[in-house]
Amino acid sequence: xxxxxxxxxxxxxxxxxxxxxxxxxxxxxxxxxxxxxxxxxxxxxxxxxxxxxxxxxxxxxxxxxxxxxxxxxxxxxxxxxxxxxxxxxxxxxxxxxxxxxxxxxxxxxxxxxxxxxxxxxxxxxxxxxxxxxxxxxxxxxxxxxxxxxxxxxxxxxxxx
Length: 160
Prior knowledge:
Blueprint: H1 2-24, H2 29-44, H3 50-60, H4 65-72, H5 76-95, H6 105-120, H7 135-139, H8 143-157
């Protein structure tokens, strides 16, 4: 009985650790890039730059600026100070929350979640003007709509 219980605790503990890791990594790399790009486009009117995406990809995989620089054949200082610093500042501005190389997942995910309700609560699509209204609506037409049709018919018949 004791071993079974410990085994369950261990599995439960593993599940809890896994849940924590999953919540920390809920966004895929492609989702992270897409959200960062959407935020920059929506607020600043610009797309993610190539080197910003390189930094975001490297950061997503836990790489240092030095490792990213070596892979991309750029200097670490250039990527960190010139590109990275401005990139994280821009993301901080657009998501209205401090964003850094190590915490970008949470702010991007929260920004995206704040955008989603506006999509879900969008008004119904407009009625297409050439579509016929249901029969019940024809019986409830106001005299105003009838009078707007009559002058057009009269006007086209009079000049003849």
